[in-house]
Amino acid sequence: MRTDDPEILQLCTDLAQALKTQGVMMATAESCTGGLIAACCTGLSGSSDWFERGFVTYSNAAKTEQLGVPAALIEAHGAVSEPVARAMALGAVAHSRAQVSVAVTGVAGPTGGSADKPVGLVWFGWAVGEQAWTECRRFDGDRDAVRAATVRHGLQGLLQRLATA
Q1: How is the beta sheet containing 131-138 ordered, strand by strand?
Q2: pLDDT tens, 12-67?
Q3: How far is the CA of 115 from the CAs of 59, 75, 79, 121, in angstroms?
Q4: Phi first, then psi: what are they for 33, rounded to 5°?
Q5: pLDDT score of 164
Q6: d(Cα 103, Cα 94) in Å, to the nearest integer?
Q7: What pLDDT does 2 receive?
């Protein structure tokens, strides 16, 4: 996936403006994207004004250690689940100096999918303060396409929630 995709650059620019206008910082909590959302955001000059930090929590242990996601929650629902996405988003805010976050956990493929959690399934979490939202999406394509779609949707989702906060 290219971090200089025009659509993603525009989303980052719009998000930067919204965050600066509201005077808040953002954090990311990423699993299946491996830091791509953070990379796209910090690709903009001046991003230190609105981007606080990114957590790449690819393993279950990292989700627990860095974000405070209870191991029992992961064990009960799996890493790719609504409760874990919510906990990741809230954990990113709680374990940073940011006020808002986006979190993603999914199956980018081409391996790792199952009947219940097929390749392309991604759970999103967004937090603004102590309020959190989640959403599940299924994206088509290869690993790069799934990850690029995840970055786009994650950024769009945070921008939408900031607009209504």
Answers
A1: 51-56, 26-30, 100-106, 121-128, 131-138
A2: 999 999 999 999 999 999 999 999 999 999 999 999 999 999 999 999 999 999 99
A3: 21, 18, 15, 11
A4: -90, -10
A5: 87
A6: 13
A7: 61
State whether residue 152 is helix, strand or coil. helix
Backbone φ, ψ for residue 58 (5° rounding)? -70, -40
- Give the burial class of 63: count Cβ atoms within 10 A of its Cβ; 0-12 exposed, 13-18 middle, 19 or more buried: buried
The candidate with the shortest Cα–Cα distance to 107, out of 150, 158, 63, 52, is: 150
CA distance linking residue 41 with residue 63, whole number of Å: 21
Mean of the per-residue pLDDT values for the chain? 96
Strand 100-106 versus strand 26-30 pairing type:
parallel
The whole-model pTM stands at 0.96
Task: Please tell me the distance from the alpha carbon of residue 161 to that of residue 125, in angstroms, as a whole number.
Answer: 11
Output the pLDDT for position 3.
63
In DSSP terms, which residues pair with 135 in a beta bridge?
A: 124
Residue given tokens 């250690």 in the structure block: 65
